[in-house]
Design goal:
This protein is an alpha/beta fold. It has three domains: 108 residues, Methylthiotransferase, N-terminal domain (Rossmann fold, 3-Layer(aba) Sandwich), CATH 3.40.50.12160; 245 residues, pyruvate-formate lyase- activating enzyme; 64 residues, OB fold (Dihydrolipoamide Acetyltransferase, E2P). Helix content is 35%, strand content 22%. It is built from 14 helices and 18 strands. The strands form five sheets. It has a five-stranded parallel beta sheet with strand order 2-1-3-4-5, sandwiched between helices. Strands 14-15-16-18-17 form a five-stranded mixed β-barrel. It has a three-stranded parallel beta sheet with strand order 6-9-10, sandwiched between helices. Helix 1 links the parallel strand 1 and strand 2. It is globular. The two termini are 31 Å apart. The C terminus is likely disordered.
Length: 452
C-alpha cells in the first residue's frame, strides 16, 4: 500500500510531518510523490493562515470526488482550530491532533486496512503533556539528507491577539534538554549540515520547568559546545524567538560558538507602539531597538529576518508609516510580510476587520518595496567577497545550482555537478538581484563535507 502526505505551514509542521512519515512506514506503507496512486492520503494543516485552509478544502474536495472510482482513506492533522476541526470531521475519514499520532495506525486499520504492523498497534490514551513527549520520541523520517529540524518546545503562552497558535497547539511545553542535545549530536554525526531548533517561542524554552530545566541560552551553550567538540562543519539555527524573552545572553552565546549560525529571525509584527499593545506583544519599540543594537554589536555579520502583519484591525496610515520607518531603521535582510486575516479563536476575531483588502495589498507592496531596498543594499556590499554556501539543489536556470549562505541568503552559481548538493562550497559573489545573490565557484572539499 502507498501513501501520500502534504505538509502546509511552518517548519514545525514539517518536523511533525517527518514523524508521520515514520509512523506510516512502520505500518508497512510506502511513500509516493503522487496522490493519484496512493491508498492513504493526508494533510498536515495550518489554521494560522486562511490561504492554507483554503488549500485544504480544495484538496479534500478533489480527493473525495476521486472516491467515486477508487478506494481511498483521507486524514488530516497539524495546527487546526476547533471550528476548522468540526468542518474537517465531515470531510476527512480521520481527524486527529499530532499528540495522538501514535494512534494513527489503529485509526487506519479500523477502516479494514491490513498491514504488517496491524498486530503491533500502540496503546491509546496517553494523558496530558505525555502525549507531546510521545510524539517527540518518534524517530523522524528526515526528508532531507543534509537539513533537519529539531523541536525543542510545543505550544505558546503569549496569546498575541492576532494568533491562533495557543488554540491549535496549546500551552508551552519544553522538551527535555538531554533529548534535544542528543538528537543534535546524532544529526551532526550523520553529516547533517543545517540543523534548526524549532518552537513557537524558542527563547521561552525551559520557563515552564524553572529550576528543573535549562533556559534557552544555556541550551544553546550546550549545543554549541557539543558541536565544537565534534569538529564537523554545520550551521545550527533556531526559530522563532519572541522579543519579550530575547536576552543579551542568547546573543553572546551565539557569538561564542562558531557552529551557532549568524542569523536571527526576530518577529516585529508592527512598528507602531499602539498596535503592538493591541496585538498583545508585550514589548515596546525601544526594547526591540535595544535587541537589534545588541545583535549588530555582538554579531556584526549576522543577517536579521522578521515577520510583519499589514492591515491589522484598526491600523491607520500613520501607524503603517511607523512600520515603514521601522523597516528602514532596522534594515532587515528578509521580512515575511502578510496581510492580516482574522482567525477563529484568536482575540482579534471578535473585532471588526476595518482595513479593506485593497488597502492591505497596497501596504504590503509598500513594505516589500522597503525590503527590496534594504536587502539589495546589503547584498550589493557582498559583491567581490568569498562566502561559504550550503548547496541545496538545482536552480530553475538550467546548468545552475542554488544554495544558502550562513545568513540564509539565496545564491545561485553555474555548475553541472549534482554531487555538490548537500555540501559546502566557497563562492565568490559576482552579483546581486534584489533578495538573492549570484556567484562563481572558488573552492570545494566534497570528501570532507559530504554526509557520511
Amino acid at each position: 500500500m502507498r501513501y501520500h502526505l502534504i505538509t502546509l505551514g511552518c517548519q514545525m509542521n514539517l518536523s511533525d510531518g517527518e514523524r508521520i512519515h515514520t509512523v506510516l512506514k512502520e505500518m508497512g506503507l510506502v511513500q509516493t510523490d503522487s496522490d493519484s496512486d496512493a491508498h492513504v492520503v493526508g494533510i498536515i494543516a495550518c489554521s494560522v493562515r486562511q490561504k492554507a485552509i483554503d488549500k485544504v478544502y480544495n484538496q479534500i474536495a478533489r480527493w473525495n470526488k476521486s472516491k467515486n472510482h477508487r478506494n481511498l482513506i483521507t486524514f488530516i492533522s497539524g495546527c487546526i482550530l476547533p471550528d476548522d476541526r468540526e468542518r474537517f470531521l465531515k470531510l476527512f475519514d480521520i481527524v486527529f491532533p499530532m499528540s495522538e499520532v501514535n494512534d494513527l495506525p489503529g485509526m487506519i486499520t479500523s477502516f479494514g486496512v491490513a498491514t504488517p504492523a496491524s498486530l503491533k498497534l500502540p496503546v491509546k490514551g496517553i494523558p496530558g503533556n505525555e502525549q507531546i513527549f510521545s510524539l517527540w520520541n518518534i524517530q523522524p523520517d528526515y526528508q532531507s539528507a543534509f537539513e533537519a529540524f529539531v523541536p525543542i518546545q510545543n505550544g505558546c503562552d503569549k496569546f498575541c491577539t492576532f494568533c491562533a497558535v495557543p488554540y491549535t497547539r496549546g500551552r508551552e511545553v519544553s522538551r527535555p534538554s538531554g533529548d534535544i542535545v542528543n538528537q543534535v549530536k546524532d544529526l551532526i554525526q550523520q553529516g547533517y549540515k543545517s540543523i534548526t531548533l524549532l518552537g513557537q517561542n524558542v527563547n521561552s524554552y525551559g520557563l515552564d520547568k524553572k529550576g528543573r530545566e535549562l533556559n534557552f541560552a544555556r541550551l544553546l551553550r550546550e549545543i554549541g559546545q557539543t558541536a565544537l567538540q565534534m569538529d564537523k562543519m554545520c550551521w545550527i539555527y533556531f526559530t522563532s524567538p519572541h522579543p519579550r524573552d530575547m536576552s543579551d545572553e542568547v546573543i553572546k552565546v551565539i557569538a561564542a560558538y562558531p557552529h551557532l549560525a549568524n542569523q536571527i529571525h526576530l518577529p516585529l509584527q508592527s512598528g507602531d507602539e499602539k498596535l503592538l499593545v493591541k496585538m498583545n506583544r508585550n514589548h515596546s519599540m525601544e526594547r526591540y531597538r535595544e535587541i537589534v543594537h545588541t545583535i549588530r554589536k555582538k554579531l556584526p555579520h549576522a543577517t536579521l529576518f522578521t515577520d510583519i502583519i499589514v492591515g491589522f484591525t484598526g491600523e491607520d496610515e500613520a501607524q503603517h508609516q511607523h512600520t515603514i520607518e521601522a523597516m528602514k531603521e532596522f534594515r532587515f535582510n528578509m521580512a515575511y510580510v502578510a496581510q492580516y486575516s482574522p482567525r477563529p479563536g484568536a482575540a482579534s476575531y471578535r473585532w471588526e476587520d476595518t482595513v479593506p483588502v485593497e488597502v492591505k495589498k497596497r501596504r504590503l507592496h509598500d513594505l516589500n518595496g522597503v525590503l527590496q531596498e534594504t536587502a539589495s543594499k546589503h547584498n550589493h556590499q557582498t559583491i567581490g567577497k568569498t562566502v561559504r554556501v550550503l548547496v541545496t539543489g538545482s536552480d530553475r536556470k538550467p546548468g545552475y545550482l542554488k544554495g544558502l549562505t550562513e545568513g540564509k541568503i539565496n545564491i545561485r552559481f553555474q555548475a553541472n555537478r549534482t554531487d555538490l548538493v548537500g555540501t559546502f562550497v566557497e563562492l565568490k559573489v559576482t552579483g546581486s538581484n534584489g533578495l538573492s545573490l549570484e556567484g562563481e565557484m572558488a573552492t570545494v572539499n566534497i570528501t570532507a563535507m559530504a554526509p557520511e
